[in-house]
Amino acid sequence: xxxxxxxxxxxxxxxxxxxxxxxxxxxxxxxxxxxxxxxxxxxxxxxxxxxxxxxxxxxxxxxxxxxxxxxxxxxxxxxxxxxxxxxxxxxxxxxxxxxxxxxxxxxxxxxxxxxxxxxxxxxxxxxxxxxxxxxxxxxxxxxxxxxxxxxxxxxxxxxxxxxxxxxxxxxxxxxxxxxxxxxxxxxxxxxxxxxxxxxxxxxxxxxxxxxxxxxxxxxxxxxxxxxxxxxxxxxxxxxxxxxxxxxxxxxxxxxxxxxxxxxxxxxxxxxxxxxxxxxxxxxxxxxxxxxxxxxxxxxxxxxxxxxxxxxxxxxxxxxxxxxxxxxxxxxxxxxxxxxxxxxxxxxxxxxxxxxxxxxxxxxxxxxxxxxxxxxxxxxxxxxxxxxxxxxxxxxxxxxxxxxxxxxxxxxxxxxxxxxxxxxxxxxxxxxxxxxxxxxxxxxxxxxxxxxxxxxxxxxxxxxxxxxxxxxxxxxxxxxxxxxxxxxxxxx
Length: 491
Description:
The protein is of the alpha/beta class. The chain has helices at 40-59, 62-78, 80-91, 95-115, 154-165, 179-192, 206-215, 228-239, 263-275, 295-306, 327-343, 376-379, 395-403, 418-427, 464-468; strands spanning 2-3, 6-8, 11-13, 20-24, 31-36, 123-125, 131-139, 142-146, 169-173, 199-201, 221-225, 244-248, 253-257, 285-291, 345-348, 367-370, 386-392, 407-408, 410-414, 432-435, 451-452, 470-478. The protein has two domains: 2-249 and 455-475, 3-Layer(aba) Sandwich (Aldehyde Dehydrogenase, Chain A, domain 1); 253-435, 3-Layer(aba) Sandwich (Aldehyde Dehydrogenase, Chain A, domain 2).
């Protein structure tokens, strides 16, 4: 076990506070490391460092910045097994997903490093002679990044990689449940040659550290992934300073299965979508919308498979599902399961597992409810291994049910009808739609985000990642050698 400090200006330093917290493995409860409960004063030191480092980092050519990110990706690739085991140990997702989390981080760094040679602007004709018009991208400045625990390397890398390639400097607050994974990332960036002060790492509570980042007038932009209440609070506080805020929030994602679908394929999709990461994904399949013609058959297939699920140590490659991240999360999930027992029909699961290893973490059975649309479990985000199954009589009803929630992140439809598939692309009110694939599985070179209460309209990853962390400057070059007046010189 290691006692970490804060990472400010290229050094691991002590906090102003003597208070610390532990990060524990959800597998068995053992302490993995300790970190400081930082103060607002610590955040100010981190901002000082980021401000001081910004001019030189901004002037560093973007391709050179990309070389550092590529070296970080190469280091991560060489240590993928070790890092994947750390993700699984600290967060609880099964080892295949732990390594997948790391692979997504590698993929994004490799992708975004290449954007350092693009960073595209626009050129366009002027309405006046001998005049040239273009746009260029410039970094925002010091940015604050706040991330959740469920993707403890991938989501931080999405933000860090995009912010760095575009020339910003960072004050970073990790989730307090998974700071060790992010600390390892910081060490990797240092090893890759990132200059001091460009990336600063401050641990602690949202009320102390998060608020200090959000409310500092010296932090020019905020990138946050987490829950809707926290996102709304951040948005409101940052609005006082008119700063840019990018929010990636919740989801209540539907998988629709039509009568003509490949049912075996749809079954694999919902199993992975609903119970991968123990349902602790913003894109998790939490609603299964089945056409009445295949409802009984498909539900029977689903229950039969889930009965065989192995819940246990996620480091064991044979395990299908590990624990949820901690007791507080588990208790919240169990409270929803109790609500579900009162308003819907429980088809499988619904219990916390006990005995042996189960007593050392919080392990929940994969849980399936049959429910009407409109119940709390069918509309509210649970963030656990709980699936609501809803019967519909038509494609039109399936779309109506799918869209009738406050979120709009991801959606899926299984059908062999190409016409219906393209209708669904247009009809589903979500930021992401999959055809014949589960609601999870985003690729790093495409934009990620959603509609309605899933966020505030922005997107991460893909080329949208560049948009998030740059300002666009419009440039006019007049080489006519005389005063020209746009609009006025029209007769």
